[in-house]
Q: What sequence folds into this?
């Protein structure tokens, strides 16, 4: 899957928001660690794919008309077997149709459920003065309430990515508090640099979020990914 | 002189002031012709006032139009009203000038779309003719080596600090404030709306200008963030750059918009861009002054957080000073026992603290020995000292006793002595000395002229700061600056 083709497809459908499956596929190609996620359009497909990506799995609604999947009951986590996948598939579709009756439903994303880790956000936004900039912060309330995030102008050098990680006020959480081991900052740094490279070579990308990205003692993986492309007239 | 394309702008062969005022005005701003006369620009180039209403100004011939002035004219200062600018632009093209500075305001900064269009059209016409524009809505150039000055009273002696400022009044404040502390400038530019030349052009020039070693910038908004970032990165890589960004708050950014038509971007991203480029950021005018002093004196060489404070002022002053130092993440470490014991040899115990902060006055003949001892003590990275403690005359000279019939030393002499003492301690010990000199009653009582001491210290390579709190903040900022510059070339 290449970026031009995905952008073209999205524009043909009048979308600027790529689907989670599209976004993750592009990021995977770019070398960014993302939780393996595939699209299922039928219950049958969902079961097959769940077995392929490996249990436990997460199912999420895929619709160009639904941005906040959890809010409409479009996400089911911790599905451990075939039977629970079957029930979840039906329920997600029903919830989505119920909440947004006119929504176009592309299908359901089937994703291997990554184990819980330290949640961080790696993002990119387009600043009116500086153009593409990278953003990094701790996930959850740290970003929402404390606005504990750092920025760098794209393209980033290695030192920029390292400094972004070390500059946040909640840095101690990454270094390990209350006996927790430190997280793999190198993996986060790599992800930041890969995303920077990806957006630098793809100017159509206007916003990008890996939120959350789970970071472990060894390695990191983006559980959710969101990409917004430029309106055709801005491109 | 360099081969940079902007170099000719800073070295005009002749200047015409068009729309020169025929009568003295009350305001400080806009007396360009007077400032140029004062700095004796005529000694090195042609200086032509233009105003059709008068024949003569201050005894010099005044020309009815730019086209009537002798050739060549390289630089034009426009004081004509906005409505007369299009005609002046045509005359500049005909006259083949190299640059024009528009003091004239009333263009894009007004928010009036029609005037913004006029601004764009005139810039395009000038560009097509190869003429560069500074402004509109600004004070233009101060280049002591070329005898260009935009305000009265600016020093004629050049220095090594380059200043770019979107505001003329702030440029004036930065220059006068820093001049009082001994700083001198290579070039200063107030560029207002930046319709043609703007921050990135000047940063690019500063990076390659051998006369400029330190760069200060006051910026309200950047029109082309990418070009700004790239130029900042190139410049900050090789020279200390300190940026004060105006319009950081919502109220400030509204004010900036009506002042220079600057649009607010995300302040967090602006700050990050400065850090990423390796430039320092000042939050206030005072911080800008302090960081420029630091970057051009030995304060830039600070390496650690341990501060020894020496200088008297009493126990209470020592306590508040220690608090101020600690608040900035620096420390006031206790001196090792061996050093304390050695110091007791010099200092009478009663009423004096012989630990850090040191609130003690040894007899003059032991002063420098004790300062060297403190500066080299374990855990001490920087010596903060007030010159008041070194202001006693050499043995045998009594300045405080007029009965001896000796005249007290002049302020300049005291200043030089204080400066040389501080720089000698620094040279002997390798520990950076940061000077503290509070103005006001204490300085007056000691017969100290704050500006004279600051100037003499600066000339000797020592930075003087108006309070312990500001010195501490500056040192902490320099340490942080050095930390995030890791991996970039050493410029300190």
A:
């Amino acid at each position: 899957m290449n970026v031009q083709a995905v952008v073209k497809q999205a524009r043909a459908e009048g979308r600027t928001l790529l689907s989670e499956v599209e976004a993750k596929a592009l990021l995977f190609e770019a070398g960014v660690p993302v939780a393996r996620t595939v699209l299922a359009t039928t219950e049958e497909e969902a079961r097959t794919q769940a077995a392929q990506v490996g249990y436990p799995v997460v199912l999420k609604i895929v619709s160009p008309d639904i941005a906040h999947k959890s809010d409409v009951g479009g996400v089911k986590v911790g599905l451990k077997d075939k039977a629970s996948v079957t029930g979840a598939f039906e329920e997600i579709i029903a919830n989505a149709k119920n909440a947004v009756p006119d929504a176009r439903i592309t299908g359901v994303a089937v994703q291997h459920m990554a184990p819980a880790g330290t949640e961080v956000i790696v993002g990119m936004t387009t600043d009116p003065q500086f153009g593409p900039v990278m953003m990094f912060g701790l996930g959850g309330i740290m970003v929402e309430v404390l606005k504990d995030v750092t920025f760098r102008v794209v393209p980033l050098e290695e030192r920029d990515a390292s400094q972004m990680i070390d500059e946040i006020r909640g840095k101690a959480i990454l270094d390990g508090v209350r006996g927790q081991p430190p997280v793999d900052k190198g993996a986060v740094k790599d992800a930041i640099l890969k995303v920077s490279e990806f957006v630098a070579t793809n100017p159509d990308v206007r916003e990008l979020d890996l939120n959350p990205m789970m970071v472990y003692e060894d390695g990191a993986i983006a559980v959710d990914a969101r990409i917004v492309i430029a309106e055709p007239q801005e491109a | 002189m360099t081969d940079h394309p902007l170099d000719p702008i800073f070295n005009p062969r002749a200047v015409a002031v068009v729309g020169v005022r025929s009568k003295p005005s009350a305001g400080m701003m806009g007396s360009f012709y007077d400032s140029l006369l004062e700095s004796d620009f005529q000694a090195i180039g042609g200086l032509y006032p233009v105003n059709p209403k008068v024949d003569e100004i201050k005894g010099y011939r005044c020309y009815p139009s730019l086209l009537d002035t002798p050739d060549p004219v390289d630089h034009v200062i426009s004081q004509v009203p906005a409505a007369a600018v299009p005609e002046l632009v045509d005359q500049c093209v005909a006259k083949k000038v190299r640059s024009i500075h528009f003091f004239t305001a009333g263009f894009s900064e007004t928010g009036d779309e029609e005037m913004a269009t006029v601004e764009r059209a005139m810039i395009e016409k000038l560009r097509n003719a190869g003429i560069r524009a500074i402004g509109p809505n600004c004070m233009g150039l101060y280049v002591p080596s070329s005898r260009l000055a935009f305000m009265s009273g600016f020093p004629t002696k050049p220095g090594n600090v380059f200043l770019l400022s979107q505001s003329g009044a702030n440029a004036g404040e930065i220059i006068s404030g820093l001049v009082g502390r001994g700083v001198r400038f290579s070039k200063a530019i107030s560029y207002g709306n930046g319709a043609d030349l703007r921050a990135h052009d000047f940063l690019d020039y500063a990076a390659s200008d051998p006369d400029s070693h330190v760069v200060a910038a006051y910026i309200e908004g950047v029109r082309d963030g990418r070009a700004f970032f790239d130029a900042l990165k190139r410049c900050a890589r090789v020279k200390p750059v300190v940026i004060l960004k105006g319009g950081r708050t919502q109220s400030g950014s509204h004010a900036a918009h009506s002042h220079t038509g600057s649009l607010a971007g995300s302040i967090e991203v602006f700050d990050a861009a400065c850090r990423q480029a390796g430039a320092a950021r000042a939050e206030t005018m005072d911080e800008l002054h302090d960081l420029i002093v630091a970057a051009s004196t030995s304060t830039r060489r600070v390496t650690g957080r341990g501060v020894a404070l020496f200088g008297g002022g009493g126990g209470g002053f020592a306590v508040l000073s220690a608090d101020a130092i600690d608040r900035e993440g620096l420390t006031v470490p206790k001196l090792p026992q061996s050093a304390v014991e050695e110091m007791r040899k010099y200092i009478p115990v009663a009423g004096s603290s012989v630990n850090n902060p040191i609130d003690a006055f040894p007899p003059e003949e032991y002063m420098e020995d004790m300062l060297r001892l403190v500066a080299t003590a374990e855990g001490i990275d920087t010596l903060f000292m007030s010159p008041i403690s070194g202001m006693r005359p050499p043995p045998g000279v009594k300045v405080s006793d007029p009965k001896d019939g000796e005249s007290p030393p002049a302020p300049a002499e005291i200043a030089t002595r204080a400066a040389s003492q501080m720089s000698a301690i620094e040279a002997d010990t390798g520990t950076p000395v940061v000077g503290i000199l509070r103005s006001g009653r204490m300085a007056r009582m000691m017969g100290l002229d704050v500006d004279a001491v600051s100037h003499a210290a600066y000339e000797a390579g020592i930075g003087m700061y108006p309070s312990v709190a500001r010195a501490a903040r500056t040192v902490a900022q320099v340490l942080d600056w050095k930390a995030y510059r890791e991996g970039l070339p050493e410029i300190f």
User: Anything to note?
Assistant: Chain B is about 40% helix and 15% strand. Residues 300-398+408-484 of chain B form a domain with the Rossmann fold fold (CATH 3.40.50.261).
